[in-house]
Amino acid sequence: MTNIESMRATRAPLTRERVLAAAVALADAEGIAAVTMRRVAGELGVEAMSLYHHLPGKADLLDGLVDVVAAEVATEIAGRDLPAEDWRAEVSARCLTARTVMLRHPWAPGLMGSRSTVPPVVYGLYEGVVGAMVRGGLSYRLAHRALHALGSMVLGFTQEVFRPAEAGGSLEPELAEAGLAAIVDALPYTAAMITTEMHDATDPVLGWCDSQTEFEFTLDLLLDGLERARA
Amino acid sequence: MTNIESMRATRAPLTRERVLAAAVALADAEGIAAVTMRRVAGELGVEAMSLYHHLPGKADLLDGLVDVVAAEVATEIAGRDLPAEDWRAEVSARCLTARTVMLRHPWAPGLMGSRSTVPPVVYGLYEGVVGAMVRGGLSYRLAHRALHALGSMVLGFTQEVFRPAEAGGSLEPELAEAGLAAIVDALPYTAAMITTEMHDATDPVLGWCDSQTEFEFTLDLLLDGLERARA
DNA sequence: ACCTGAACACCGTTCAAGT
DNA sequence: ACCTGAACACCGTTCAAGT
């Protein structure tokens, strides 16, 4: 009896926060498809039906995941000294921070795109970016367009163009299996591009795509364009 | 007996193509979540297990959907006269064509991001864009980076920043329900941006976000930057 | 108040059976 | 060769029952 009592005491009571934390951990470890009511409950040593006392249903669990990730971005940004005097540097830092969090939770961009409402925390993130741009002299119209451009880039860059989903796979096995010669014939420009880039790659082990470099390149391209549009 | 024979005759035999066409129609009409083996089979007047004679499993069905959409982009591009003398105009036309197809199948970008292999048709689309850029004088390195930037934009812009998922929802009901005054207090820049843009909007019915305009703006921003980097 | 077991209507997939 | 019914191991969710 006292044993059971103490076991109950050691097992922290279920809360919305504990459920969401378990779901995030599960999504990070096994992908968003592993996040089922039954699996999440299992991780917490509880039956699936117990979750319904803390969340109305699965839709709210997924909305909650978006919330957690957005809050993580907000916390990360709050913990950094943002260069407030230069709008370009400040916006850049905000986007790069958001990206590092997305890389920790690769399922998050896809999930954000599939939910039907935008959680308040995300509006808070927009506010920071818009504020930096408007204080930097961009019009509201330009800031609005910039928000769409930057947002779709932060969400879109995790969906890799060449090796989507599991970041593990490289292009080479695919090429090998499909027959390199056939590809070179059918896709001469692409083939030349791949061989050129593989040759120039500083780290051939990492592969020929360094998405961090590509992300920063695109970010600069957009910020340069916005700065020019501002003037 | 002859009746049954003739009914069998009128019902076209199941093929991979017919299964995929039914799945695309279902996804367009009810979203990608409605695409289950049982539902697709039902649309074809057949049992779920029959599909396995034409597709190895659900993963291949989803891969097939990506294939169909990519092929649709390729067909659409092949049917247009692309301005070959100007790389900027040609790449722009290719991206805009891809976008119109994505708008017809809003589930496609998310699906492409979640699949683990890139189908050959998609490599064919890349080839067209890379070819245009290289012939236009861009280095392979620049073309590679441009491909990532443009690709993530074409895939990312359907995941709307403000009203994700169902394009039906507007921002206003959300704002109203959350209390406009509270939002204005917490998000002054965002509130000012929304009111300014709503006031300037040419078509207030369409809402304050015109994603086609925003897409074209971002596309031009990127192409301008690439042209400058080329020189 | 919080958790549970049984049940319902769904999934994808296998396998032996029909034609 | 092509389609099917029954079955298995999973889903989300409801509801009456336990403590």
- pLDDT < 50 stretches of chain A: 1-10, 165-170
- Please indicate the percent range of residues of chain A in DSSP E strands (runs of 2 or more): under 5%
Structural class computed from helices and strand pairing of chain A: mainly alpha
What radius of gyration of chain A results from the CA coordinates?
Answer: 22 Å
Calculate the mean pLDDT score of chain A and round it: 86
Kindly report the oligomeric state of this protein.
homodimer
Largest interface comes to: A-B, 65 and 66 residues
Distance between the termini of chain A: 75 Å
The helix content of chain A is: 55-70%
- How would a crystallographer describe the biggest sheet of chain A? none
Shape of chain A: flat
Number of helices of chain A: 12
**What is the number of strand segments of chain A?**
0
Domain HTH tetR-type (chains A, B): 13-73
DNA-binding region (chains A, B): 36-55
Protein name (chains A, B): TetR/AcrR family transcriptional regulator
Keywords (chains A, B): DNA-binding, Transcription, Transcription regulation
